[in-house]
Amino acid sequence: MRRLVRLVRRAPLVAATLAVGAVTLTLLALGLATPAAVVASAYALVIAVRELVGMIRALRHGRLGLDLLALLAIVSTVLVGEYLAALVVVLMLTSGEALEAAAATRARRELRALLERVPPAAHRREGSEILDVPLDAVRLGDRLLVRPGEVVPVDGRLESAAAFDESALTGESLPVERDAGEVVPSGAVNGSRAVGIEVVAVAAESRYQRVVALVREAAESRAPLVRLADRFALPFTGLALVLAALGWVLSGDPHRAAEVLVVATPCPLLIAAPVAFLAGTGRAAAAGIVVKSAALVEVLARVRTAAFDKTGTLTEGRPVLTAVEPEPGFSESELLGLVASAELSSGHVLASAVVDAARERGVRVETPESAREEATHGVRARVGGHEVLVGKPGFLESARVAGMRRIDPRAGDAVVYAAVDGRFAGVLRLRDRIRPETAATLAALEHLGVERTVVISGDVDGTARELAAQAGVDEVYPECSPEDKVRLVAGLAPRPVLMVGDGINDAPVLAAAEIGIAMGARGATAASESATVVLLVDDLAAVARAIAIGRRTVRVALQSIGGGIAISVALMLVALTGALPAIAGAGLQELVDLVAILAALRALRPGREERRLLPEAPPRVPREVGAPAATGR
Length: 633
Known about the structure:
By secondary structure, the chain is an alpha+beta fold. The model is unreliable at 617-632 (pLDDT under 50).
């Protein structure tokens, strides 16, 4: 009984139609033909009015939908006395809507799974007490308790070592061991023992809540290709009306027109494309790819140019210090200590590497008395009474540093220049490693129809070109500011253009490209918010996978639209001969609807192209949440 009640609640119009059908058949069995006709016809016309209202609303939004054919099929069958066929058409429409809703629910499953994991509250320590408080009440510095098996509610610094299941965030199936002092991201699931954390980001700014916000955007969108089905409305409706009129003229029987219109009811076109796009976004979410709008799936399928930032995108984003080269008057440890102290105030990935290297070597790193960072150029700080400049050579040259000279960089090195008290003090050399999946990803992009790949980087010419050569990219644009990147992407062809980045300074160019992809498992919040696609896995191959999913989704949607039209036209031609009674045609359309939905749901599964070019591989684990993100300096 409860199951029946749930079914009625989920599909009330289907239940109502079945109930009216049962009453109609009962009246016919009792020999009450006239009351049966009245009941069935009245109900069918009520549904027709409902369809008319929907059609008017569509017209107000500038769309001539396919609802007109459904309306004509119901009205024509009622007018010629085929009220049972009218009920079958109504059942087809209402059950089609219910099937669409069920299919959409399945297609959104991966997206919904993220939403359902949001913890409702946090356990805050106040003295010796543990109080449950709403997430919005959690503040920076609060000490929280995360019990075994619970979802970490906000980003927090661990008070003791622990293991976490981070598969919902990264796809990594194995538990991730984190030491005391590391930051554990919200959304991770605690292991077998309770652990304390110190809050480092409030709920709205924590990793998992940002993911949830992206997912909500994706779930509420509608794709242009769905409207493509509406654009078929005019020719399809015209063809159906011509065939219906032709059947009436040739047979001299208005029933023939009704029979043609019944099988012309275009439910497959109305529901197949939306289901395919919902399935595609669900498939992407399962692969750790959040597409903010279903409209972007179609654009992904047509990408012809791919542009990449370098640091943290084509490379691992974890450079290591390889050499300290001081000028006369400075020792290696003195130069490294001053640079590391100045870099404490920077969010650049090179700054983090310098600070880590200094601490590992036992060099003293002190908090600067003052510091100011000029994004993508360098840092000006006062350390131990000294004025320290750290950054690109142009940054030091613009400050008129005495004795400044450019060092010939070895291929692949990143060179950090330093000046102390207005005098050139030396350089630090760092090297970043190319991601192991980079070459295979670029090869896959070529197979997926990407005609041009470029590297747009803030790094110096030699470093950027060496990396591009290793990756197999011919075009390189080095030493680019955020403004330069936007200008270059705007001028790239052929279109559409995809841009991949992870740093703070990538945010403008990600927003400027038709498709902006943020390496969100590692990158800055600004990049993730301005991007149209966010990768939750630290795997460059996900870029190619996103395009492969887009291509398959569009292919499935077009096949569903084309198949729906072909089947409907074939059935109309059969009905034109008089060989297909109205009630039989209506029943066949019900089967066609089901077939169209099941065909559209194929977008939930990876296609041959994706399986061939991108074999499944375990995602790479991202750096800790809260670690500095690249700025492309």
